[in-house]
Each structure stands twice: as structure tokens, then as C-alpha cells.
Specification:
Blueprint: E1 3-7, H1 11-22, E2 24-25, E3 28-29, E4 31-35, H2 39-48, E5 50-51, E6 55-59, E7 64-67, H3 70-74, E8 79-82, H4 89-96, E9 105-108
């Protein structure tokens, strides 16, 4: 099982979270944390397992936890997938830098 943080819960970030949340390593699903800037997105996912704002109609697996707390999303993450709009990268990367570990794999999808 990998601990994966996806930073950005738009349609693309949510879609990637669904794919990663369905994948399994040795029959154990990945632990996926999906960070959303919008609290209503995390509430929708917590309540209905659906990102009603950006990707309605697609149910998120139970292995995905949504959060609006960046530190919570990044805590002990082995892999960070950045799926935020490029205009937000600099500010969010600066916020993320203090909590990232040197061995963390980082994938930028902006």
C-alpha cells in the first residue's frame, strides 16, 4: 500500500484519485488523501462519496479521504501528485515545502 496525497480536487485530480483508490498493492488499496481548496468539495465527498462540484456522478472509493487541510493531506505521504491549476503552483509549493520529506516522490500534473 502506498500513501498518496493528491493536491487539487478538480475533475482531473478527483479522477486520478478514483483510479489510484481502486488500484491495489498486494490486495491492499492505496491510502489516498485528496486535498481540496473548497470546503464544500470535501463535505460533498465525506457526505456522498461524490465530488458534486467538479466530477458529479462518479463515486469515490472508501480508500480516498478528502481534506481541506494541506498538512493532513501531506502527512507521511510517500507520493505527492500535484494536480492544481498552474497559477497556484508557486504559492502551494511554498506552503508544502516545510512538510515534505526528501524521499517523497513528487509528480506534477499541472
Amino acid at each position: 500500500m502506498s500513501r498518496i496525497a493528491i493536491i487539487g480536487a478538480g475533475a482531473w485530480g478527483t479522477g486520478l484519485a478514483i483510479v489510484l483508490g481502486r488500484n491495489r498493492t498486494r490486495h491492499v488499496p492505496h491510502n489516498v488523501r485528496l486535498w481540496a481548496n473548497e470546503p464544500e468539495v470535501t463535505e460533498s465527498i465525506a457526505r456522498n462519496r461524490i465530488n458534486e462540484r467538479f466530477l458529479p456522478g462518479f463515486i469515490l472509493p472508501e480508500s480516498i479521504a478528502a481534506t481541506s487541510a494541506l498538512n493532513t493531506a501531506l502527512d507521511a505521504a510517500e507520493i505527492v501528485v500535484s494536480v492544481m491549476p498552474s497559477q497556484h503552483c508557486r504559492a502551494l509549493f511554498e506552503r508544502m515545502a516545510p512538510v515534505l520529506r526528501p524521499e517523497t516522490l513528487f509528480l506534477c500534473c499541472a
